[in-house]
Amino acid sequence: xxxxxxxxxxxxxxxxxxxxxxxxxxxxxxxxxxxxxxxxxxxxxxxxxxxxxxxxxxxxxxxxxxxxxxxxxxxxxxxxxxxxxxxxxxxxxxxxxxxxxxxxxxxxxxxxxxxxxxxxxxxxxxxxxxxxxxxxxxxxxxxxxxxxxxxxxxxxxxxxxxxxxxxxxxxxxxxxxxxxxxxxxxxxxxxxxxxxxxxxxxxxxxxxxxxxxxxxxxxxxxxxxxxxxxxxxxxxxxxxxxxxxxxxxxxxxxxxxxxxxxxxxxxxxxxxxxxxxxxxxxxxxxxxxxxxxxxxxxxxxxxxxxxxxxxxxxxxxxxxxxxxxxxxxxxxxxxxxxxxxxxxxxxxxxxxxxxxxxxxxxxxxxxxxxxxxxxxxxxxxx
Length: 382
Description:
Layout: E1 19-21, E2 28-30, H1 55-121, E3 139-143, E4 167-175, E5 180-181, E6 186-187, E7 190-191, H2 193-206, H3 210-223, H4 228-231, H5 251-257, E8 261-262, E9 270-271, H6 277-283, H7 289-301, H8 307-313, E10 325-326, E11 331-340, E12 343-354, E13 357-365, E14 369-370
Parallel strand pairs: 5-8, 9-10
Antiparallel strand pairs: 1-2, 3-4, 4-11, 6-7, 11-12, 12-13, 12-14
């Protein structure tokens, strides 16, 4: 049995969309066609509720867009503030590392000067400088805190209140008179014949052209010119061998010469106790490489106390001359290397030693260099 709608007889068919007047009512309404018995009719107009104004939806969209823009601006300003704060912290950290590195390397240089001074005034010394002395032993990379005194029996390496646990120091002292001095090429406005022969042999050994040696000799004469007319056009005198490129020397030649030559403020002699076999061979007229090797082997067991000791080893040969050779030195290079976390700072200094007085002539410091693998760099070899 099916349900029947009580208004089915009075209401129009479901497909009729015309206006309809309800019985007993004087008001006309429009009926939206629906299924009369299962769902009530949806009436609009004066009988149903009013529709929302169209402007309300536009206002809601504008408010949402404004909220999104506000969130974006706040996020942008917050990111910019965080970036500026991070940059300020990074700059402060780098400046702190630079200052700390500078003071640590100054302390290392003073320590090196103290070692050289003690060697110079040692009563047990014989006035020579040789490779059996303490200054010749390089300092391998070691934790900086191991050099600091313990406080209340607690080593600094275990003290978390300090930041020296990640600092590592290495360095070495090198005798610069173990090398051929480019300054010897010029002597009172003339090319020194003895020094020129020494460098000729070295250039031949290294396979470098003679024209480059002649160029170096000319540039040295011009750089040391005392005449006012010539001095105005004189080239700038380099401070080290690495700067010989100023004079037009190719970098390949500079790299080849670096282990054997130096550039000192004055003319110097070659130290028989510290020079390599190649430098000894190049420094002495008529000396062959085998004899130079004999000198090196002999001094390892017993260093030379005078030039005569070396000459006696070669059979009282005149090839060892007191005008060219010596057994002591006055000029040393001090190299220091500090690794602080992942930053590396290097410094090299020229030190002059004379009768217990040790002075620093110049210092050259490298910038902070970031390493990709901490702990892989070792101290420089002598």
